[in-house]
Amino acid sequence: MVSLNYSSSPESRVLARLTGGGFDRAKTAKSIEKFIAGYVKAARAEGGVVVGLSGGLDSAVVAALCARALGGSGRVLGLILPGASTPNEDVEDAAAHARELGIEHQTINIEPIVERCMQVLPDIDNKVARGNLTARVRMSVLYYHAYVGRRLVAGTSDKSEISIGYFTKFGDGGADMIPIAGLYKTQVRELGRYLKVPGAILQKKSSPRLWADHTAEDEIGMSYETIDPILYMLVDRKKTAKEAAAALGVPIDTVKRVQAMVVKSAHKRAMPAAPPRL
Questions:
Q1: Which of 2, 68, 119, 135 matches a 20 to 30 Å C-alpha distance to 35?
Q2: Which residues are annotated as a binding site?
Q3: Close Cβ partners of 240 (under 8 Å, ≥ 6 residues apart)
Q4: Considering all CA atoms of the chain, what is the largest pairwise distance in Å, rounded to the nearest integer?
Q5: At what angle do helices 224-231 and 10-19 cross, to 10 degrees?
Q6: How large is the angle between the packed helices 111-120 and 127-149, nearest 10 degrees?
Q7: What phi and psi values does residue 107 have, to the nearest 5 degrees?
Q8: Alpha carbon 7 to chain centroid, angstroms
Q9: What integer pLDDT is reported at residue 72 of this predicted model?
């Protein structure tokens, strides 16, 4: 895993720009809440929204924003969807935060659904394939409840995950709106502090929990404190890999790794390919 000294390095200044005094947390929250309320109204989603609650940072922030935008009682449904690799503490953290927000919430164990699917699928020992199946089962359960309750599905991916493709296509990437799509992971954490998300969730390592001991940063191979300044330079500032590396004082190979993730995952951010109009 890449480990960099942020105490005096150039990228620390970029990170500070993203999450420090230049990041107006109150204004950002108000803007996103206005977006949520307006989108739900325009869609005539009488039931409000349904959010998948993982017990992690992103879903906690999205749930809090939705509760503030729509009012907690009845218009926000939080679904906690544990699988075989979901720690009990995640379920408990998600439920406790939902109660704190005053939103309706339910816990549905999706493992029987995943297991039934595996019984009729080829017996292949591939944890990523099974993990992606798990994510897509969660999406299906969210949309089931959305349809029944006349709700929209509020996605919980952030700009870091979307940019590098760290989500399952038609799984956790499937949503009607993604309130924090414009915020990098480090910014979401700062917004979480403003929204008074519990400390246990704020400090928890990001993980989709698709298999045992699964954490995002271990799978990616670097921290979001490293990824976000690089993405800012590549995506927002439109710098080349060489320019970004020079500006941040990081190895060019590290920048190119992030750049490669962005390029390789472009299909995840696009509509399905179709032939030219005949």
A1: 135
A2: 52-59, 136, 156, 161, 169, 176, 185, 207, 267-268
A3: none
A4: 58
A5: 80
A6: 120
A7: -115, 125
A8: 27
A9: 63
Known binding residues for Mg(2+): 58, 161
Where is the binding site for ATP, in residues? 52-59, 156, 185, 207
Residues above pLDDT 90, as percent of the chain:
79
Q: CA gyration radius for the chain?
A: 19
pTM: 0.92
Strand partners, 49: 76, 152
Q: Name which of 134, 137, 139, 131 is nearest 157 in CA terms.
A: 139
Closest to 138 measured CA to CA, from 78, 184, 181: 78
Residue positions forming the annotated binding site for deamido-NAD(+):
136, 169, 176, 267-268
**Residues in contact with 170: Cβ distance below 8 Å, sequence separation at least 6, in sequence order:** 136, 139
DSSP 167: S
Per-residue pLDDT for 151 more than 70?
yes
Task: For residues 216 and 220, give the distance between their C-alpha atoms in angstroms, rounded to a whole number.
Answer: 6
pLDDT at 3: 39
